[in-house]
Specification:
By secondary structure, this protein is an alpha/beta fold. Helices cover 38% and strands 15% of the residues. Helix 7 packs antiparallel against helix 15 and helix 9 crosses helix 12.
Length: 461
């Protein structure tokens, strides 16, 4: 096994015990990147000289016994919405081509303090306003979408060109590409990870979180990210050690299995894989409980009713000054936001309040809800619609956001875990949704499931 193939947890232990040096790990990842990046286009920019310099410094610190923690010497990618001092934050857009950050975002500063090493900035669907990241190719099949908007981050982790990465999630943008590329993605509780220095799509829906190869890896990254930051008004005063235990016993935990919404208009192979994974959770001691998802008829309208006007407000000046610099799909959405009445936005906020209350009651009865992350695996690049067996036609973006949106509207945490592949070899994801600040339970359950499965191999390009 080459160093770039190691999970974060395994690489961290090898560095700690001096069986692997940060220099060897970074060199291996950069060599892998040089080989596969031309086919995948996961990165906006790569910083090999800075990465190698940081790796040499980390090597000296480890040799001298100056140990910072499990992220020390670990190569990472950051979605190009996340500020790093002196580096461009382009949001994968011509609008931001000349922007350079003066200071680190909170998450970049915390990861640097933990010893993680930046490999480069990863592509996003322009300004995170889409679910495909069209400039990036799926790690399993170059002819298919990477998923979005954190497509570059998910592809980099899946292909071995970053040991972990950060994404953002406003309507599924961590979980969707993670599911489509066969990696783990965590959207934390709203406010758990500060967003200062991260380009916004929708203030009341935005989250920052890790994309990793294993659930334990996600727990290690979350521990470095979480904690209050007064510069983010939504930031929560909580943090902790999220690493799950080694055992697989889930006795006493109740898993809600939706009887509505989450299995409606879902590809049969996706449904079968997720139901098999749920059966595995039951075999580990969890009790399955059928649940009814509340207020489902309002989910799509609430998600778009919140996101569209907030995004348009953020882009108001540049949309009027340089509209021609936006990609057509994003410009149309931003212009549509200017036509939405204020009353629609207020009604969406009221619906969100009612939905949060209804979900809180639902999560009184179960510890976790298990469901598909997305209803269909990665579609062909350029495909605009999905046609379901009953003849219903759904836009690709609507399909990919549909099962992810409830966690953004309500702010509850959601973890996407790979649960197999379809007959075309494309990954399938299951999401576990929990109570606010219920990340330890989600990570425990996801890790327990993961331990029953064969180790997943990196995508071959």
């Amino acid at each position: 096994m080459q160093p770039y193939e190691l999970s974060l947890t395994a690489a961290s232990e090898a560095i700690r015990t001096r069986k692997l040096s940060p220099v060897e790990l970074v060199d291996s990842v950069l060599d892998r990147l040089a080989k596969v990046e031309p086919q995948l286009e996961a990165y906006v920019t790569v910083t090999p000289e800075q990465a190698r310099r940081a790796a040499r410094e980390a090597e000296r610190d480890v040799a001298a016994g100056r140990l910072r923690g499990p992220l020390q010497g670990i190569p990472m990618g950051l979605k190009d919405l996340i500020d790093v001092a002196g580096a461009a934050t382009t949001a994968s857009s011509r609008v931001r081509a000349d922007h350079r950050a003066d200071t680190d975002s909170t998450v970049a500063a915390r990861l640097a303090a933990a010893g993680a090493i930046l490999i480069g900035k990863t592509h996003t669907h322009e300004f995170a306003y889409g679910l495909t990241t069209p400039q990036t190719h799926n790690a399993r099949d170059r002819d298919r979408v990477a998923g979005g908007s954190s497509g570059g981050s998910a592809v980099a982790v899946a292909a071995g060109t970053a040991t972990f990465a950060l994404g953002t999630d406003t309507g599924g943008s961590i979980r969707v590409p993670s599911a489509l590329n066969g990696v783990v993605g965590l959207k934390p509780t709203y406010g758990l990870v500060p967003r200062h220095g991260v380009t916004s799509l929708s203030w009341s829906l935005d989250h920052v979180g890790p994309i990793t190869r294993t659930v334990e890896d996600a727990a290690l990254v979350l521990a470095a990210l979480a904690g209050h930051d007064p510069r983010d008004p939504a930031s929560l005063a909580t943090s902790g050690d999220y690493r799950p235990g080694a055992g697989t016993d889930l006795t006493g935990l109740r898993v809600g299995v939706p009887r509505n919404y989450y299995f409606d208009h879902v590809d049969p192979e996706v449904e079968a894989a997720v139901r098999r994974a749920i059966d595995t959770l039951e075999s580990l001691g969890a009790r399955l409980v059928e649940v009814e998802i509340p207020m489902t008829r309002y989910i799509q309208a609430t998600q778009w009713g919140l996101m569209v006007p907030e995004a348009t407000a953020y882009h108001e000046r540049t949309l009027r000054a340089v509209p021609e610099l936006y990609q057509a799909d994003v410009r149309i959405l931003l212009e549509a936001g200017e036509l939405m009445p204020a009353g629609d936005y207020v009604r969406a906020q009221r619906a969100r309040t009612l939905m949060r209350q209804a979900w809180a009651r639902l999560l009184d009865d179960v510890d976790v809800i298990a469901a598909p992350t997305v209803p269909v695996t990665a579609v062909k690049a350029g495909q605009d619609t999905v046609t379901w067996s009953d003849g219903t036609v759904e836009g690709v973006a609507d399909a990919y956001v549909r099962l992810s949106a409830p966690a953004n509207i309500t702010g509850v945490p959601s973890l996407s875990v790979p649960v197999g592949d379809d007959t075309a070899g494309l990954p399938i994801g299951m999401q576990l949704l929990g109570r606010p600040l219920g990340e330890p339970v989600l990570l425990r359950m996801g890790h327990a499931y993961e331990q029953t499965q064969p180790a997943r191999q990196l995508a071959t390009v």
